[in-house]
Amino acid sequence: MQQLPVPCPAHLIPVASGTGAFHDAYRNAMVHHAVFVAIESEGGQRWTVKADTLTAGHGHAVADAVSEEIRAAINRLVQRHEVDWGAYAGPIYFMAHGVQSEERARELAAALHAALYGDLEPLARAVPPPG
Fold first, then answer.
1. SS (H, E, C) 48-109
2. How many Å apart are CA 38 and CA 131, to the nearest integer?
3. What does DSSP say about strands 36-41 and 93-99: parallel, antiparallel, or unpaired?
4. Strands 88-89, 93-99: parallel, antiparallel or unpaired by DSSP?
5. Residues 6+ apart with CB under 8 A from 100
6. Residue 29 parent element (H or E)
7. What is the pLDDT of residues 102-130, one digit of tens each?
């Protein structure tokens, strides 16, 4: 498995459904000292988005302002019923269940991945603030 580019296009976000696939994707992120990001099928048409910054190592830091923007975007997704209540919004681990399609899960995962590297623009496009 190769390292994901930054920013990672949605079509390259790994599907980590099942224990083996999850561990492979997570180990790959650790080996490359990169932020882990993946989507998982929940069965049927619902998907989970996951990200974890621990795999990037101690040299990777997410600014407080970026963390706040990510948290706000995840809260908007919950309020808009795009993800299930109980989404985990960091600051290190991120998870959102109940995404209605693989395409949307990939879009959200790619936007979250970019944000965790400091680029908030894809997140603002994927989850626009009200107004």
1. EEEEECHHHCCCCCCCHHHHHHHHHHHHHHHHCCCCCCCCEECCCEEEEEEECCHHHHHHHH
2. 30
3. unpaired
4. antiparallel
5. 45, 46, 47, 82
6. helix 19-31
7. 999 999 999 999 999 999 999 999 999 98
Cα distances from 19 to residues 7, 28, 40, 45, 80, in angstroms, run 26, 14, 10, 19, 30
* Residue recorded with tokens 């706040």: 68
How many other C-beta atoms are found inside a 10 Å radius of the C-beta of residue 51?
A: 24
Bridge partners of 95, per DSSP, are: 50, 88
pLDDT tens digits, residue range 1-29?
Answer: 788 898 899 999 999 999 999 999 999 99
pTM for this prediction: 0.96
Burial (0-12, 13-18, 19+ Cβ within 10 Å), 75: middle
pLDDT in tens, 27-60: 999 999 999 999 999 988 999 999 999 999 999 9
d(CA 39, CA 47): 7
Strand order in the sheet with 88-89: 36-41, 47-52, 93-99, 88-89
